[in-house]
Amino acid sequence: GSAGQASYAAANGTLAAIVRARRARGLAGLCVDWGPWAEGMAAEDRVRRRSLGLMPMEAGAALAAMQALLDSGAVQASVLPLRSWNAFFGAHPRIGDDPFFATLRPEQVSSETISSDGIVAQLRAMPDQARRRALLQHLRLALATVLGADPQAHVAPETPFQELGLDSLMSVELRNLLAKAFDVALPPTLALDYPTLATLSDHIMQQLFPATVPDRSDDIAAIVAMSDAEAEELLRRELEGLGV
Asked: What is the pTM of this model?
């Protein structure tokens, strides 16, 4: 079982056996194998649980799940909200051989698909627009790997990583994966500094092919140096150009 749970195993096994014995005799009983709650004892070890791919349950959601199980007539069930299947299976390598969990294991994205030599060489040989599209797709695959999500699922370039469930531990995992794949130096705060696929793609494009990403630092400096009246006039012209 999971680390730190050995002391509970015997008691939990006994309670589960009592519930099954009661149900076999036509009596009421429900055994729920709970994942971590956001409050109480389970909340004390959040870092380790997140590394296992688990996310804490709010009390309201957990109680709603229990009501649904009571209504279903189930004998025993697990309520285990997962943030990342890949992290879960990585922390429990043997469990993937179980027929039940084998059906839940997400399709693995081959590490060769996001290897440094293959991608960088392919990108270098592409024209600019095709290169950008290909890089964006590779970033989607890397993100799916870290999240344990469907690698075929479409993620809009402007969707914030936080909305997808990427937490701080996963951010570091994503950074390490991309740094190795593209052989570039990336900051530990990568997903905070570049919180969408679009901004992350621009940053990595700048790292790999600096000549293809225009330097707008002079434009930004000029805008910062403007007076309020000049900035207001510039904004007015931009809006007029957009037909606003």
From this structure: 0.48
